[in-house]
Amino acid sequence: MGTYRQFQEALENQLVRLTQFPELAGPNLAQLIDKLRENRFNLVILGAFKRGKSTLINALLGEPILPTAIVPLTSVVTVLGYGEQLNIEVIFQNEARSKISQPELVDYITEKGNPHNRKGVREVDFAYPSDYLKDGVRVIDTPGVGSVYSHNTEVAYNYLPQVDAAVFVVTVDPPLSAAEQEFLKDIREYVHKLFIVLNKIDYVEAADRQEVLDFTTQVVQDNLETQQVNIFPISAKLALDAKSNGHPENLAASQLPEFENHLRQFLYKEKGRVLLISCLSGALKTITDSTLAIKVERRASAMPLKELEEKITRFDQELCGLEKERELSLLLLEGRVKGVITEVEADLDTFKKETIIKLRREMEAAFHQQSQAAGDLRQKSEEILFAALRDVFSTWRRQEIEKLSQKLADTHQDFATRINAILERLTQLTARIFDFSLRGFAAEDAFPDLRQFWFRFREEPVGLEILQMTVTSLLPRAFTKGLLLKKLLENVAELVDKHCGRLRYDFNQRLQEIARDFRQTWVSKIDDTTQSIRQALERALTQKQTSTQATVARMGQLDHRLTEILQAESKLFALKEQIENTLT
Predict the structure, then answer these.
(1) Which of 135, 240, 531, 535 could pair with 59 as two cysteines, CB 3.0-4.6 Å apart?
(2) pTM for the whole thing?
(3) What distances in angstroms separate CA 53 from CA 49, 66, 69, 143, 223, one per listed residue?
């Protein structure tokens, strides 16, 4: 932690000092400070049932916080973050919240206490005063991959694009299952942030461990189709015993410290460096804006009144050209977003046609395999249909969001680049008109983190839950199996169409919201810079029209303030250089 935390604290202290300057006080620096303080390193734990995921999390935290279930977990995600005191909150699918005690946890996140998630739990947020979590790490515990509860694997898939690092837990015995190997094949694209933990090494003799490690490495490499695989043999059980019961000799034997060091280094150097540089760039942009306004006012105050009025007129004329560029950028953004929406609609149409054909075929095959009486067959067939609908829609939605996230990130970056270019021309033309030097423009990084788009789509749209209407409820009791099958196949198209309509509406709404955010965030940067220049010119003009003595006094104040701000700017540049040289 040390190096990253030191840089984070040093940057936060400098940002707080900058807020003491009236010219810099405002929402921009406050937002950067919040961004720095609230940053989290999201770490997802993946693995099959009984591989020791909960024990590993407890070992990382140093205490037995989570229950180690003896039955598969439900599709409930548990998110562990730092808090000054223990606080556990259950978040239900209907958005209701309820605080619970630690012993009550098993009643919500285990299959025994909450079978088939009948309590409608969406997530459990767990705040705990752990030194491990205090560093900014947030641990996300997902259901078991490849468990008998198929939706659990889908939940695990959905979290991968959102996180900064993923840990996949396997064990020395038994070897990787077919479901685990299939999961590895599906997540090949995330191998750059995937760590494989070979747990329970204490179950085999030291002489046999290398053979087990070599075998597991080969299986993982074959499934991921890469030689670049990080596999760490550990014993979570020994590590937890060492940390919670004071047995330091077991900590070294567990080999957990080596894994922790690699994981921390990855998180802080990869994401931490990007975050720090992004906040630094934002602060330097704020300083550029403020020093620009000070320099404009200082230079304008020294001009004869007539010359100042002429330069203000020239500034207004050139500003008109930049405003046209801004409007053009907005039109291009609107076109890009419309293009994405059109693509989603086309994908949905294709998906709908393929899904209707696929589900009808699967339903007919499943129907003929059933041997129940008509009444039981009705219920079983509907269960199969609704389970199939849920799986196919969840899978398509996850894949579509992943594709959208990349397109939105590219759109965001392009739009930000255009706005930054306009800002640079604005500052340079101002410096040229009023004849002063200006340090190179500090364009603010667009910071297009793909996770920000994933989180915007993370929650299921309202009403998207599969409507389990009794599709055969109007049939008479004495119906034939043929009539039942005909009715079920007719309802496949109806149900697919309804849920495609819900998805279409949901994607459209969220894409429009994201586009509005783009416009508000980036256009405001041009407006803020333009406003600060205009205000500086108005102050100088007012001073010139009133008192020469007041103008001279104001010029002295501006010189002093500019010197102080430029000194603060130099410290930020020095810190940026240190971060770039250290966190590489």
Answers:
(1) 240
(2) 0.63
(3) 8, 10, 10, 9, 21
